[in-house]
Specification:
The complex is a heterodimer. Chain A is α/β, with parallel strands linked by helices. Helices cover 35% and strands 23% of the residues of chain A. Chain A contains 19 helices and 25 strands. In chain A, the strands form four sheets. An eight-stranded antiparallel β-sheet of chain A has the order 3-2-4-1-10-9-11-15, with helices on one face. By secondary structure, chain B is mostly beta strands. Chain B has two domains: 2-203, Spore Coat Polysaccharide Biosynthesis Protein SpsA, Chain A, CATH 3.90.550; 215-383, Hexapeptide repeat proteins (UDP N-Acetylglucosamine Acyltransferase, domain 1, 3 Solenoid). Chain B has six helices and 39 strands. Classes of the chains: A alpha/beta, B mainly beta.
Chain lengths: 581, 384
């Protein structure tokens, strides 16, 4: 997903476009660019967030322009790969949202005809294709011919030096025109238009529009067509969330697909041979990513017999033992300051380094020797949900590769349907227990201990209830003193090695009158009988249960926070990525 | 022009298929019914579309967002009927609008016929009018509309598509939409009947097979994925990306297959079959006239005919359906219907299971092999 904005009118185009792109940031934020037509083409593009660096594009002059905020699919985010893309002459500028499926074929064809390609994107081919067909006056005709050659999905904006128009075209990617007084806008959705105009024209698949100050003309396969002018009174937030009350809920519900896509994104090529049999592994991360790292520790040590240390990024600089083996860092944004510092330290020790991140081309990917990506898509909610699930998918995939076989493959294959299943779970009774509580305990053992930590973190972050995650056996070494009828406990009690000991732990806690929310396998009668609220997980592989349990705990935190009226997407005092130490 | 699509109700008569989705989201030819309704509106240039969601609303919203559909979502918190659902959209409606059911198929030509009218109801003939609102006309106007009558007075039924204006709202308080329309007519309003071109409702789960067969010929042929050279494909076929069709597999369209499926080797897929995404069909199996949803596994040597298979079912080897027309009791009504099987979500079957004209609930496990299952099996049951 990317966002595009075009403007033809009387205002400084760069300002309008930057402001518009900032509203489209939820569609992608790894790089951006603006081109204005003054009447020569001026371009500013750079890697980074439009919300942070957008002002730099203000210097572009002109009242006609196009812009783009990117979420990289083909080619890493960089100044070079950011849109707009130009043709060989630098006179035609193009922004594009979508995927050109036959770009490789077209690139070869055009390169053979002498076109010079500067980026690794699928979009640049469109600029050269238009150049090929452009006769110096008929831009629409050239775009018309170019789009006939394209396969895939696109929403395009094109402007050419010396012309006072922007040409827009779409097929299977969204594009809408905003009609003002002596000004016309084009954008991926209505958010950039709001505040300027409420009159919009939606383009249909296969439509091509010519936009200038005087108005707009729409053509469908060369024939002029009329599209009605509609009136919108939506607010920006509604459009972005598409009907979900919060980004967090939207992201929770994206998880079945995210887990599936990420797991299938980990292939033989993801992990070079030299990383597969290290003498030891050090995992460094912060927050939720650290909890994913802990899961990796348990998993990797038991299945691959390789010692794994999981360390907090912020504490890592205080450790002095000699580092050996490989160092793996996990960060959603790729910009977490403490994690980056740890990575640099590992480099100084000459350790091979591996990064796991969600953002193509982020700082971490440029420092680490090798990067494995999660495929979670842009995560807007401060509380990590889908990125945590994606991290688990990557790490489970990596353990699979290190083990040298398809050990979990078949079992994890069906994980997405189990996540779907737990999204249907009615947790209202559990929320009722958590909502009035001032303190909560989350307990688990083994692989489920990190999941308990993560569950408690989610609860703290968004509901502001004091929640503590503990290894169940550690409770007796102190925290047991705090248990009473006022301190509900969320107990993770999956079938397996830890089951019987967890069950007796739960009985002990129950004896101190603590209300218990038990999470375990569906049909577990014994557990159902002793806990106050039982949340069943469908029977499946242990690792799938682990993923499903985290999803249930996210839901518990989310719904508790909503019941308490908290600002879920922007919890107090917190930022999405921590870029200072 | 504005349009309101009601997608808040569960559609209980379609159980067990509505556990994880409202009826509007049930896929037919791999596309939710709701999408056909939205497409019919968009084809007529109707862009201001409001979708009222309620039951399993997150799933509907997720579908709409993932597909970048240009609609506005309104939430009906409690399912208090269609009149109330429409009123949830009231703040966004100007004078005239269309009202549609999100869980009935409708084509663009029908919308074109009704969108010019002020107060109108789209009607069609139906052989079983007792399941619908029966419309009585007089002098070219609707004189009466009776919802699900025991003894119908004619075969003209309402399709649930209306052209209305704001004066309609005062009749909706405490009423379902057809009753409100009746009240409006009794008040002397002119309501015109407009004949639909193509409309279809799936009242019972097995009706989905008919709808599937009807909509499949309209898919766009496209073959992505990896298709073995020794497989034979005939007719209209759509195969999604990432899907692998193994050697010696025979597919006879119209057939649609989603993404990331593994089919074959040596399978046969016969006409009028929809197969969702991430489905595995093991070797030597035969599937015909069936609707198979996402994440299903069909074991080897299986024979699935005239069946609706819900999400993430795991049917082990040698599972067979047996089509016969038994009489079933559902919600106090006895119905005779000829179909193979209707399976809810996550049904598991042991090897050599025979499913004979049965409706199996969600999360049912058939543990013992060599069993023949008939009749209605409730959700969560274990068949031993």
């Amino acid at each position: 997903m990317c966002g595009i904005v075009g403007y033809v009118g009387f205002r400084p185009a760069a300002n309008v476009i930057v402001e518009g792109l900032q509203k489209l940031e939820y569609r992608g934020y790894d790089s951006f660019g603006v081109a204005t037509n003054n009447p020569s083409i001026e371009v500013y593009k750079c890697e980074g967030k439009i919300s942070e660096k957008g002002e730099r594009a203000w210097k572009l002059r002109g009242t006609i322009g196009i812009g783009h905020t990117r979420w990289a699919t083909h080619g890493v985010p960089s100044d070079r790969n950011a849109h707009p893309h130009l043709d060989c002459t630098g006179k035609i500028a193009v922004v594009h949202n979508g995927i050109i499926e036959n770009y490789a074929v077209l690139t070869r064809e055009l390169a053979a005809r002498g076109h010079i390609f500067r980026s690794e994107t699928d979009t640049e081919v469109v600029a050269h294709l238009i150049e090929e067909y452009y006769d110096g006056s008929d831009l629409r005709g050239a775009v018309e011919k170019a789009i006939q050659r394209l396969e895939g999905s696109y929403a395009l904006l094109v402007t050419v030096e010396g012309s006072d128009e922007v040409v827009a075209a779409r097929d299977s990617s969204p594009l809408v025109l905003g009609i003002g007084d002596l000004e016309v806008f084009a954008a991926s959705d209505v958010t950039p238009l709001l505040g300027y105009t409420e009159r919009v024209v939606y383009l249909e698949d296969g439509d091509l529009a010519e936009i200038d100050r005087e108005g707009w003309r729409i053509y469908s396969r060369g024939t002029p067509v009329r599209r009605p002018v509609e009136h919108v009174d939506w607010d920006v937030e509604t459009v972005k969330k598409g009907g979900f009350p919060h980004f967090m809920l939207k992201e929770i519900f994206e998880q079945p697909k995210v887990f599936y896509d990420t797991l299938h994104g980990v292939t033989e090529a993801s992990l070079p041979e030299r990383y597969r049999r290290p003498s030891e592994i050090t995992v460094v991360a912060c927050g939720s990513s650290y909890h994913a790292g802990l899961v990796f520790k348990y998993l990797c040590e038991s299945t691959c017999r390789i010692p794994v240390r999981a360390e907090l990024g912020s504490e890592f600089k205080y450790f002095t033992p000699p580092l050996k083996g490989i160092v793996t860092v996990i960060t959603q944004s790729g910009e977490t300051a403490d994690t980056l510092a740890a990575l640099k330290k590992a480099k100084a020790y000459n350790c091979p380094t591996l990064a796991i991140t969600n953002v193509l081309g982020s700082t971490v990917t440029r420092i680490a020797d090798h990067t494995v990506y999660m495929r979670a898509g842009p995560e807007i909610s401060v509380a990590a949900t889908k990125s945590f699930i994606a991290q688990l998918a990557v790490l489970m995939g990596l353990v699979d590769l290190m083990k040298g076989g398809n050990r979990f493959g078949a079992a994890l294959e069906r994980a997405n349907s189990v996540i779907e299943e737990v999204l249907l779970l009615d947790i209202a009774k559990a929320v009722e227990i958590c909502r009035p509580a001032e303190h909560l305990f989350y307990v688990g053992r083994g692989l489920f201990y990190p999941i308990a930590l993560e569950g408690a973190l989610k609860m703290k972050e968004i509901s502001y209830i004091h929640a503590e995650g503990y290894a169940a056996g550690e409770l007796k070494h102190g925290p047991f003193a705090l248990l009473s009828s006022e301190t509900p406990v969320v107990a993770l009690c999956p079938p397996g090695d830890t089951y019987s000991i967890m069950l007796s732990n739960i009985k002990e806690m129950k004896a101190r009158n603590a209300p218990i929310i038990g999470i375990g396998a569906r049909g577990d009668r014994e557990l159902t009988d002793i806990v106050d609220v039982f949340l069943p997980i469908p029977e499946s592989h242990e690792l799938v249960q682990l993923v499903a349990t985290s999803v249930v705990l996210q839901q518990l935190a989310y719904q508790t926070a909503v019941a308490l009226g908290r600002d879920v997407d922007q919890p107090r005092n917190l930022a999405k990525s921590v870029t200072v130490e | 022009m504005q349009a309101v699509i009601l997608a808040a109700g569960e559609g209980t008569r379609l159980r067990p298929l509505t556990r994880s989705r409202p009826k509007a989201l049930v896929p037919v030819a791999n596309t939710p019914i709701l999408k056909y309704v939205i497409d019919a509106l968009l084809a007529n240039g109707i862009r201001e579309i409001i979708v009222v969601v309620g039951y399993r609303k997150e799933h509907v919203i997720r579908y709409l967002t993932e597909n970048d559909l240009p609609v506005r979502v309104v939430v009906q918190e409690n399912q208090l009927g269609t009149g109330h659902a429409l009123r949830c959209a009231e703040p966004y409606l100007r004078d005239q609008f269309l009202l549609l059911a999100g869980d009935n198929y409708i084509d663009a030509a029908s919308i074109a016929r009704i969108m010019g009218e002020r107060n109108a109801v789209l009607v069609t003939d139906h052989p079983n009018p007792t399941n619908f609102g029966v419309v009585v006309t007089k002098d070219g106007l609707v004189s009466e509309i009776k919802e699900k009558p025991d003894t119908p007075t004619g075969y003209i039924v309402s399709t649930g598509v209306y052209a209305l204006d704001r004066s309609f709202f005062k009749y909706t308080i405490g009423h379902e939409v057809p009753d409100a329309l009746q009240a409006m007519i009794s008040d002397g309003a002119r309501v015109v009947p407009v004949r639909a071109v193509d409309w279809q409702d799936a009242v019972n789960p097995w009706d989905l097979l008919e709808m599937n067969a009807k909509l499949l010929p309209r898919i766009d042929a496209k073959r992505a994925g990896t298709i073995s050279r020794s497989s034979k494909l005939y007719g209209l076929i759509r195969i999604g990306k990432g899907t692998v069709i193994g050697p010696n597999t025979y597919i006879h369209g119209p057939v649609v297959i989603g993404e990331d499926c593994v089919i074959g080797p040596n399978c046969v897929i016969m006409p009028n079959t929809s197969i969702g995404s991430r489905v595995t069909i093991d070797p030597l199996s035969y599937v015909a006239n069936s609707l198979v949803m996402d994440d299903v596994v069909i074991g080897s040597h299986s024979r699935i005919i005239d069946a609706v298979v819900g999400e993430a079912c795991r049917l082990q080897d040698h599972t067979a359906t047996w089509t016969s027309g038994a009489v079933l009791e559902r919600e106090g009504r006895f119905q005779k219907a000829a179909f193979g099987a209707v399976l809810g979500d996550r049904v598991g079957s042991a090897p050599f299971t025979i499913l004979k004209n049965c409706i199996i609930g969600n999360n049912v496990t058939i543990e013992a092999g060599n069993t023949t299952v008939t009749g209605v099996v409730p959700d969560g049951a274990v068949v031993i």
